[in-house]
Amino acid sequence: MLDTQNPQAMIAGMAAAARRAAHQLARCSTDQRRSALLRAEEAIRAASAEILAANATDVARAKAAGLTDAMLDRLRLDEARVAGMAAGIATVATLPDPVGEVIDTTVRPNGLELSRVRVPIGVIGIIYESRPNVTADAAALCVMSGNAAILRGGSEASESNAAIHRAFCAGLNVADLPTDAVQLVGTTDRAAVGAMLAAQGAIDLVVPRGGKGLVARVQAEARVPVLAHLDGINHVFVHASADPDMAAEIVRNAKMRRTGVCGAMETLLIDSGYPDPAALVRALLDAGCAVRGDDRVRAFASVAAADAADWDTEYLDAICSVAMVDGVDEALAHIARHSSGHTDAIVAADEGVANRFLAEVDSAIVLWNASTQFADGGEFGLGAEIGIATGRLHARGPVALEGLTTYKWIGRGTGQVRS
Amino acid sequence: MLDTQNPQAMIAGMAAAARRAAHQLARCSTDQRRSALLRAEEAIRAASAEILAANATDVARAKAAGLTDAMLDRLRLDEARVAGMAAGIATVATLPDPVGEVIDTTVRPNGLELSRVRVPIGVIGIIYESRPNVTADAAALCVMSGNAAILRGGSEASESNAAIHRAFCAGLNVADLPTDAVQLVGTTDRAAVGAMLAAQGAIDLVVPRGGKGLVARVQAEARVPVLAHLDGINHVFVHASADPDMAAEIVRNAKMRRTGVCGAMETLLIDSGYPDPAALVRALLDAGCAVRGDDRVRAFASVAAADAADWDTEYLDAICSVAMVDGVDEALAHIARHSSGHTDAIVAADEGVANRFLAEVDSAIVLWNASTQFADGGEFGLGAEIGIATGRLHARGPVALEGLTTYKWIGRGTGQVRS
Questions:
Q1: Based on the domain organization, do B208 and B255 belong to the same domain?
Q2: Min CA distance, B283 vs chain A (Å)?
Q3: Of B114, B370, B407, which is closest to A396 when you measure between CB atoms?
Q4: Taking the complete model, does pTM exceed 0.90, yes or no?
Q5: CB of B262 within 8 Å of any CB in chain A?
Q6: B1 — pLDDT class (breaks 50, 70, 90)
Q7: Is a pLDDT exceeding 50 seen at residue A145?
Q8: Which residue of A has its CA nearest to B122?
Q9: Is pLDDT above 90 for A99?
Q10: Strand partners, A206
Q11: Are residues A275 and A355 in the same domain?
């Protein structure tokens, strides 16, 4: 029995079981992992009523506790959402398998053949908030990439997560994979998150999924590696050479398609050489966006004044800060100072300027003539994503199956010894 | 002026200057970085007398302080060693440049073209002990890969490191690269290492180079990512099918070529089906190696008894623990339990068994019919190495230029917006 009174011991026990399961998963064929996911998909579909009943309990409790409508919406499941969750698992099962991929091979002068081969990372901790679908999404991505998952969902979704987890494991079981490959940490123990973050060597990687508070806590406390992004303070720079229609459309889309996503534009930079800056501000205002401008913007547009904090603010709302800049150099300097390193874009017809922007902006994703809202694993062709990373090591931008692998060196010799 | 009384402020100031230099380096052409290294090589050669004089001061001080002969040998430079250091810089200048390499490109159905392009990591901290050549080696690898380096060498080598650093920076200066690209932390401030390890967001990666004490401290304290290995508890498993001559030669070489390197074998596992296990033990004994055997080994060889701690010990000496195992399963179980994840090898003629070993041993380097002593960036064809990593993320095994880079996503569109 795990000692749930001692969170360190509980997590150590779960991680040890996860490690054994991970070794088993790493040895599975692609087909075994694929079919386990398809069995999990079926099990989730079959358990739909049970999952919805569990979710109703969570929602009722959350309502009583006075959660906001937005939080309730993230929490709430219906038949379509459960079906979508199951379909998501099936999609992951169709993705190319990175495990076993040979990254490169070299034959040394002494005949030793060396290859780098992709292998699973091992044990992945996922710490998330109210959306119960993360339980299924994260489990599917981890299992498909040969990793064991230790899931810690939000307490408000505990019944839903448990029901989804039960169904997922039933699927693993039918496919003869160890159910320890996907373990769910109970939410009664608030110290469990701390124990996960401290589990150096036992948990190989933690991925937080949720609001800024959660991500900030994970980044501040973690002793294990973390893949995450804290902020998406994303910029669109409209260069003097930009096509006006394209610029207006990208600006509108980057800000207003969805204001609450991490890929949304938060700051618009307009080149002082751009012929009609007022049209860009108007495009935002007409779409229902509040604009906060610098002095040069307010000289031609009747908008609120941006203060110093605006340039470092992720609004996640229909608000945009707008600044005039003198050319690409000033745009680059502004971005270097204020970008959170997530996604920044340039709209320009001038290829030389665009290439400079692409080369010099030091963000995970840099786009030319495209909306920042494309920052998403699905849109990038990865089929799914475990998250978007703005750190500098291992994986950047949208992270999916490949980002959940590492590599080892395999050497094949014929008796070589070193002289 | 940097406030050397406040190590946090001092490191923050150095890291900020390093970041600016890193941005400049990242924009340099390959040729600029190459020629900067060649200028540094020339400067080191020209400063040879000065470096040797500084080294003589360090050595005299170290002798007076009673350092061991082994430590004095690591510290001591002569003309040949200085020339070797300069030649090492020149070698790094000839390596393929990973910066700008396009890892992959995909064109999405909407026409958006997405590429992953290698970029430098940014600011790398190197914390090392007595060998002064690390000053030049690490600086060369960082500059060639477009990174700025913050170097913290051992206090016993402070004069030597300062002289080498001065010469290296003179070379950067001649090549018009910022000297802030390679900064040396003074050794008078013992708290500087702690400040480097705490510099989350300011230093992107720390690489410790030195003994186990240093690496353990760095791994325990660091809030920034670390690439390192703590131990090289490496195994050679001789399978029943192994060619006896090959097995004896690999065993002898893996242990005795150099006993003090991290790639040395520490434990020999002999399959109980192997025809002549005594010959393998004799090969070690004849080469001057002390053997500690389990009961089954001591039944045929008159050697000391291994105790439980032996299987987890990195001797770095002419000592080897030897155990008999029943087949590859038991070998895999022993390795899973005791390996430090550095380098493990199998000697076998049976390809099926060898492939199982290569697939299932979860170490950074797994070898078939080759000596573990090949675990080295030079031997792997990387031209050099900043170190060997046994962690699971970013880079494993020997780490050289590519391991000092990350990637970003570059997207080229024609006005795409997300629906």
A1: no
A2: 15
A3: B407
A4: yes
A5: no
A6: very low
A7: yes
A8: A392
A9: yes
A10: A125, A226
A11: yes
CB A178 within 8 A of CB A24: yes
Contact check, Cβ <8 Å, B410/A250: no
Mutation for testing the A interface, residue in B223, B374, B399 having most A CBs under 10 Å: B374
Q: Return the CA Rg of chain B.
A: 24
| Percent of chain A residues past pLDDT 70, beyond the cut | 99
Same-domain check for residues B79 and B145: yes
CB burial of B199-219 (b: ≥16 within 10 Å; e: otherwise) equals: beebbbbbbbbbeeebbebbb
pLDDT at res. A1: 45
pLDDT at residue B28 tops 70: yes
Chain A residues with beta carbon closer than 8 angstroms to that of B413? 367-370
Residues A220, A240, single domain; the answer is no
| Range list of H helices, A128-260 | 133-144, 158-174, 192-197, 212-221, 244-256
A122 contacts chain B (CB < 8 A)? yes
CA quadruple B365, B371, B372, B378: dihedral sign: negative
Segment A154-180, tens digit of pLDDT:
999 999 999 999 999 999 999 999 999
B24 close to A (CB below 8 A): no
Residues of A in contact with B225 (CB under 8 A): 225, 391, 393
The domain tally of chain A equals 2
- Tell me, yes or no, whether B179 and B265 share the same domain: no
Q: Report helix, strand and coil shares of chain A as percent, to nearest 5.
A: 45, 20, 35
Domain that holds residue A312: 234-374
Nearest to B205 among A106, A393, A414 (CB): A393
In this structure, the strands spanning A182-184 and A397-399 are unpaired
CB atoms within 10 A of CB A162: 19
CB atoms within 10 A of CB A279: 15
Residue A4's pLDDT is 57
Contact in structure between B256 and B287 (CB atoms under 8 Å): yes
